[in-house]
Design brief:
7-stranded mixed beta sheet; 6-stranded antiparallel beta barrel; 2 helices; 42% strand
């Protein structure tokens, strides 16, 4: 799962209600006096920022405004971006907390057997016999591997996102087939 989990946009995995936008960065502050913005990258595909010509800015009130990008530069997980019509610090400060988004059709291609988090969340989860056991609530990132949090009728479970347990992911049908590891602990609904 290539996208990093951070920010209020549910780990860069939930497109906007119309399922068209994917957040690639969250603007955390203005930088300098000439309208440059500092953003936190929400993507492992940092090369996407180098060729960014336009960006959709989604504000906390849900409004979305397209902006022309003058320039970008990267420093670790930080993205410094200068938008064409943002020319002073006061204007730039209005962008704090907004998300830099792209259309879901413009996401970076993934290697085989990799999926965007927003494609997996909400998926029906079935066992090998095809019986529905729950839905994917979210993906959590850990150093060893990602973990799929599955909401079941009375409790929640965490399944390691590895080939041994995740047997099939059908993005088109929004369905995942898993093998539940023996002895896997369950947690009261909503406690994970």
């Amino acid at each position: 799962m290539p996208e990093k989990p951070r920010a209020n946009r549910k780990n860069n995995n939930v497109p906007s209600p119309d399922n068209k936008l994917v957040a690639i960065a969250r603007i955390i502050n203005a930088r300098g006096l000439h309208g440059e913005l500092k953003a936190e990258s929400l993507s492992d595909a940092s090369e996407r920022f180098k060729d960014l010509r336009t960006v959709l800015i989604e504000f906390s009130d849900g409004s979305v405004v397209e902006h022309t990008v003058e320039r970008t530069r990267l420093s670790g997980d930080a993205v410094f971006i200068k938008l064409k019509n943002v020319t002073d610090r006061t204007t730039a400060e209005r962008f704090k907390g907004a998300f830099m988004c792209i259309d879901s059709e413009d996401v970076a291609p993934l290697p085989e057997d990799s999926f965007y988090i927003f494609d997996v969340e909400g998926m029906e989860v079935c066992d090998r016999e095809g019986k529905t056991i729950g839905r994917v609530l979210r993906i959590e990132r850990y150093p060893a591997n990602d973990v799929i949090v599955v909401g079941m009728k009375n409790n929640d479970i965490m399944i390691p996102a590895v080939r041994e347990y995740v047997r099939n992911v059908d993005v088109k049908r929004k369905r995942m087939t898993v093998i539940i590891p023996e002895g896997l602990p369950t947690y009261p609904k909503g406690k994970l």
